[in-house]
Amino acid sequence: MRRRRVGIPIFQLEFATTAMLGVISDPTEESAVREFFELFKIPWEFYRNERQYQVVLCTGDAKPDPSSTRLLILYASQETEFDVRLKIETHLHDHETNLSLSAGSLPLYGCHATFLHRGTKVLSSENPGKTVGFVDRLEDQLFARVGYDLFREVQCLVTRGQPPANAGTPTLELHIAFLRDLIVGCGIPLMEIPPVPEGYPFIVCLTHDVDHASIRRHKFDRTMFGFLYRATLGSLFNVVRGRLPWRKMFTNWAAAAKLPFIYSGIAEDIWLQFDRYLEIEKGNPSTFFVLPFEGDPGRSSEGQAPWARAARYDASHIASKIPRLMSAGCEIGLHGIDAWLDSSKGREEAKRITRFSGKETAGVRMHWLYWSEDSPVILEDGGFPYDSTVGYNDAIGYRAGTSQVYKPLQADRILELPLHVMDTALFYSNRLDLSPREARKRVSSIVDNAARLGGAVTINWHDRSIAPERLWDDFYVELLNDLEARGAWFVTAAQAVSWFRKRRSAVFEEVRFDSGGLHVKVSTSSGDNLAGLRLRIHKPRGSKQFAECTDNQPNGYVDISLNERIDALVAL
């Protein structure tokens, strides 16, 4: 155990506390509260009458002891007894809206309230700019009134998800950023274990859905004819509209002409790209999600899935490639067929993959991203440690509003590694249909958010996307170079999930405010080869900075390395 003394200028504390934040919420929100504070990892607990807190966060008509806290934060979309008692003019709105933050636009998916009050505005609607949150002083206590239901918004995000129109907004991270800034803007220091690995700005997970491991296995089927069309006429069309350079069109034409020789075994299979991925990724590990069975389209929510979903290969057909991938540090996961709706099928599919990988368990991502609200529980019952399905087929960004690994509210153990960037969503003509320049801008926005907010960027580049007729290899290489230049930590999906499990295991054993400073003891699991954690102490700010997002500005916080256990004293 290490004991450190860290000096930062903070305010003179008026009393000692044993926890920083107490929460009073509706019982139906308990799972959302617990998960929110795994993502916003600070010392908190459900409110206890005998305790004193720096901050008390309430929802609805909760009635905490006024003397128990320096700052009272009330989230509610309806008028409360608090509003009536303080004569706060409250207007209720039963529609979705967007709120204006310095860090970006914040979508709300439930009801909200606006206020007419003399306090300092900290949150407003984008149109027409009405007050949705304000801060004021009530005798010796600061209070903040926020006009939406925080934990219902969290429930919506991690259960139902965001529509593609809001895919580019890390909504859940913005809820966290607003609450963080509200607390430190009220002059209260805040300690946090951020979703940022020690020594790196953020995490990157390179993943590959292996849908078509070999073109040789596609003879006179929909996939073969689709390839020939896209490689010939489709390539010419893309040249005309400025989406494909001439040299790549000729490469595709040559590949189409070579097809008979590939079938006869004279020429190499152009879609067998495992070795090339190892070369391109230059030692950075990645995860390959492999289909377990050939010729099985599985089921959709309406019945049998389209036959186009059935694979023309299974794990046995690429068994010779798996040892080299694993010796290079890569992971073999399951590209599930029916695991999302049938736990017994999931166990059967996983067993097929672990037979060839030699591992006891496998993570999963569903083929075609099939999913339902019941899938987390079904996959957990199937024995999967993590899933990485929650993303978009037709957009890129944050379906769950976050870059962090999270636990679905219905589940007990399984964690979700959200998917953020998928190649086909970027470039398919019936999806985003972006040019390389437009795609770079979209992806850079997600990477910029990771550099600012932490978390993981999960990328899915399909197995054949660096081969004819797609030839998206140049874009992928450029993306990897940018991520390396930013200093990202490249890990497999399983390693990323393990790091977030370690962060979730961290325990604030003691938090004590007294005249000598802020004393904190934190412990976490050890004995792994993963990057360490950080304990981040945010400096308080003045009241004029309520709405400013300054977490990434110089000297806005102090970081302390947390690898196993620390005992730190922050001097006043």
Short description:
With 572 residues, the chain is an alpha/beta fold.
How is this structure best described in words?
This protein is an alpha/beta fold. The chain folds into three domains: 2-193 and 506-571, no CATH class; 203-214 and 271-486, TIM Barrel; 216-269. The chain contains 15 helices and 29 strands. The strands form seven sheets. It has a nine-stranded mixed β-sheet, covered by helices on one side. β11 and β12 form a beta hairpin. It is elongated, with a radius of gyration of 26 Å. Residues 1-18 and 543-553 have low confidence and may be disordered.
Number of strands: 29
What would you call the shape?
Answer: elongated
- The percent range for helix content is 25-40%
Number of domains: 3
Please state roughly what percent of the residues sit in beta strands, choosing from under 5%, 5-15%, 15-25%, 25-35%, 35-45% or over 45%. Answer: 25-35%
Mean pLDDT, all residues: 92
By secondary-structure content and strand pairing, the structural class works out as: alpha/beta
Give the radius of gyration: 26 Å
- In spatial order, strands of the major sheet run 3-2-4-5-12-11-10-7-8
- The end-to-end distance, rounded to whole angstroms, is 23 Å
Largest sheet: 9 strands, mixed
The DSSP helix count reads: 15
